[in-house]
Amino acid sequence: MKVNSIAELRSYIEKQIQDTLSKDVAKKVKGALIASAEENIYNTDPTMYVHRGSLKEYDVYVEGMRLSVETFSTPNLSYVSTADASFTATIVQQGASNPFNDRTEYSWMKPRPFIHMATEELEWNNEPRASLRSGLRARGLKVK
User: Fold this and answer.
1) Is the Cβ–Cβ distance between 23 and 134 less than 8 Å?
2) Nearest to 96 by CA among 116, 119, 117, 75
């Protein structure tokens, strides 16, 4: 590839990074989130979340040089009065107060930080960095 300026070279490299993030790294991140929801939420009490919406629906996309994640886990509206798309994941991630004002300790009141667990797993196993490296190499760039 012939480039005529540093700006052109930079633009080309940034495009390759963005493509790699959106195609290769995004798959790893989405997979880790889904696996964490399975392991830390669904497999702990599979009957509890059947009717509450899915915690396994994500859009992973690139903004500039940053990978962003958005959940599409909408709650079952027969149980709640909002259609906020982040509601279900937020309650599971952070826990929620008891709307019934009784002294019962419901399991959904306790935080279950499956997103945080997925993030820690990705940091520990270094998969995003390895995916970025192999994706850039596959696009013809030499990286360490």
Assistant:
1) no
2) 75
Q: What is the distance between the alpha carbons of residues 24 and 134, in angstroms, rounded to a whole number?
A: 9
Helix (H) or strand (E) holding 67: strand 66-71
The answer as to whether 91 is a domain residue is yes
Q: 111 lies in which domain range?
A: 6-138
Characterize 5-30 residue by residue with b for buried, 16 or more Cβ atoms within 10 angstroms of its Cβ, and e for exposed: eeeeeeeeeeebbbebbeebbbebbb
pLDDT tens for the 144 residues of the chain, in order = 788 999 999 999 999 999 999 999 999 999 999 899 888 887 776 566 554 557 777 888 898 888 888 877 666 566 555 555 456 777 777 877 777 778 888 776 787 888 889 999 999 999 999 999 999 999 999 998
- Return the structure tokens found at 68: 């962003």
Q: Is residue 75 part of a domain?
A: yes
